[in-house]
């Protein structure tokens, strides 16, 4: 019997999780070969502590039900263990799930758990903080902090904060050491990308690989207001690396010194750190479940139940 634990963030994203939880109870029954436990998180570190506990108890799979912040906390508890991570995306951006091609429908995500493959992916570290998708300095860290304290979630709220903060933001100065060379740069933002996108199919590092032992660093030098529509289109079209306002690097480690302490964004969650920043890759850090390649029945398996749920229910007589 497989031991599977679901760590559910009840406040992530904008969707209602009631139907999902019912579906999980129906799917992962002892009669179907599963010992399932459901853990509802109560705070920012609760998912991490619960995840570590499930590893110690020998669970086969731990499922993060939430956004990138929830996935980050759950995944950190699984580092270098034999317990596999699975994701049921329920966040605002779902950057890691999108990169791994995990379906955003919970029917499809559950199908990945039932029928998918397992791959090993890298993690990365800035000082003592781990991330799996992206981390960054500058404007993106400020927006992440504002968004996390907002009363509402979703892409529209995120874009509203971008517009409000853009007119106030002043570029910062950085000294960057990479591949033995030192650069001085002013930047609008600096992103460290383990995966290709921030979320919502906004590709800050389109060529990033999540399992190559390298980190992609994107330095957005400046962002003139008149160029913002073009830059936004380039993020969506996976061509931002060709912009005249962007420099890109790939390395195993990076050192940065900034002029003062400030915010850093880690998988959507912002924290304060000091002037000195060290970035390193943790190779093959975690095992993750992903959709099976070329599975001709996958579409049917998760679309049919979804269509059934959408049909009007016949009232009981």
Quote the average pLDDT.
88
Tell how many strands the DSSP assignment holds.
Answer: 16
The whole-angstrom Rg is 20 Å
Low-confidence stretches: 294-302, 312-317
What does this structure look like?
This protein has 317 residues and is α+β, with helices and mostly antiparallel strands. The model is unreliable at 294-302 and 312-317 (pLDDT under 50). The chain is globular. It has helices at residues 18-27, 46-56, 68-76, 95-99, 106-115, 139-148, 155-166, 228-237, 298-310, and strands spanning 2-8, 34-40, 61-66, 84-89, 117-126, 129-131, 134-138, 172-178, 181-187, 189-193, 215-220, 246-251, 253-258, 262-266, 269-273, 276-290. The strands form three sheets. The protein has a six-stranded antiparallel beta sheet with strand order 6-5-16-13-8-9. 28% of the residues lie in helices and 33% in strands. The chain has nine helices and 16 strands. α2 packs parallel to α3, α5 packs antiparallel against α9 and α6 packs across α7 (155-166).
């Amino acid at each position: 019997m497989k031991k599977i634990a679901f760590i559910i963030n009840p406040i992530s994203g904008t969707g209602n999780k009631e139907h999902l939880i019912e579906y999980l109870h129906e799917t992962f029954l002892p009669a179907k070969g599963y010992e399932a436990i459901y853990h509802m998180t109560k705070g920012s570190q609760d998912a991490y502590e619960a995840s570590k506990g499930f590893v110690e108890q020998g669970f086969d799979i731990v499922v993060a039900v939430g956004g990138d912040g929830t996935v980050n906390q759950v995944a950190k508890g699984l580092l270098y263990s034999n317990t596999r991570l699975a994701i049921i995306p329920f966040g605002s951006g779902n950057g890691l799930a999108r990169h791994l091609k995990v379906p955003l429908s919970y029917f499809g995500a559950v199908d990945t758990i039932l029928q998918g493959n397992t791959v090993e992916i890298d993690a990365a570290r800035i000082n003592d903080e781990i991330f799996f998708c992206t981390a960054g300095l500058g404007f993106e860290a400020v927006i992440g902090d504002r968004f996390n304290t907002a009363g509402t979630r979703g892409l529209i709220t995120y874009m509203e904060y971008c517009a409000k903060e853009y007119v106030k933001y002043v570029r910062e100065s950085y000294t960057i050491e990479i591949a033995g060379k030192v650069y001085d740069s002013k930047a609008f933002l600096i992103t460290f990308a383990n995966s290709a996108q921030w979320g919502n199919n906004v590709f800050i590092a389109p060529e990033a690989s999540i399992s190559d032992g390298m980190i992609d660093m994107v330095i957005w030098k400046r962002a003139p207001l008149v160029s913002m529509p073009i830059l936004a289109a380039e993020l969506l079209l996976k061509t931002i690396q060709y912009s005249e306002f962007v420099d890109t690097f790939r390395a195993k480690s990076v050192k940065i010194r900034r002029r003062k302490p400030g915010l850093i964004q880690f998988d959507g969650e912002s924290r304060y750190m000091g002037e000195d920043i060290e970035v390193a890759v943790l190779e093959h850090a975690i095992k993750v479940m992903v959709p099976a390649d070329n599975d001709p029945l996958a579409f049917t398996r998760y679309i049919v139940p979804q269509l059934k749920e959408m049909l009007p229910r016949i009232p009981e007589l």
